[in-house]
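queue> holo job accepted (iron/sulfur cluster)
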Amino acid sequence: MSAIIREEQIQNIIMREKPKRIGIQAPDGLIGSVLALSDSIESRYGVETVILFDPSYGICDLSNLDAERIGLDLVINLGHSVNTERVGKYTFLIDVEYDVDFIPVLDKAIAQFKGRLNKVGVLTISNHKAQLDLIIRYLTDRGIKAIRGPGHGVLFGGQVFGCNYYNAKDLVEDVDAFFFYGQSRFHAIGVRLVTRKPTYLLDPFFNVIEDVTSGAELIERKAILSVLKAKEARTVGIIVSLKEGQFFMKQALELKEKLSSFGKKVFLFTMREITAQRLRTIKGVDAFLETACPRVALDDEEFDRPVLSYDQGLALIRLLEGGELGDMFSSPFWV
Ligand code: SF4
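queue> job finished
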């Protein structure tokens, strides 16, 4: 298995835009490709490249604001395709596909679920976009009717982000279960939590099928526990991310005002990478609340005190107001 970077797409962009200097940006999983790509672009097109070496986690995490001061004419961002090529003034999203064979894991799913599931919704991430229709046809031809969502905003049909599950929510009344095709347990768990439908991770790399129900229950229990612990906090730190698509200052200020009205001492922080190691350096804060990326709060094991996502923060406020915790995961869009 290897990752295939669509170099002809890069070529078309360079021919069309005629840049003198371009930035190359990639998630950690593709960072091993950037040196060869930089070398190839410089030697083939005579274009200077700058490798933007911080990890890029998604289209929330681009460098349009930095491009100007670095003197870039454009940035190519690898592996985060959506249904538009250009995002912001400088960034072009380059398709990267995994050429993994999907048939073994689909055959396994057919053997396991044929006759038990009549209709499933199939979801995935950008790196399997080209396989999605083939997967749907393969399942349907062999007795499991498979469909995908129609697309939503920038999401192509069937795509989910770790914070955006519209393509699952749109199908919830139409299917018996969801298949998440790929390796990310977090995405599959997100589908399960948003839809409350049986959800199976179909991992083509290890040829494994996993019912993510217990993983979803664990994340939900931990999320609830964090909110209950944060309720007792006297001092709260609210973290605003400086990443371009994660910058939610207004929401942070609203949370600050609310929490202050309940007698909490609130400090505002800005950060780019929210890590357990960095948070440990602050001693006088009992709980953190981050308005950056829900995955930071929900999917990190290492924090030494409660760290809440925005939706958990809203649940905390409901509790402080004397209401119920409510369902923190019902919205298809998690902040
Ligand atoms: S889950 Fe986090 S990293 Fe992924 S797209 Fe959403 S905000 Fe970005």
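queue> Residues 103-211 form a domain with the Rossmann fold fold (CATH 3.40.50.11850).
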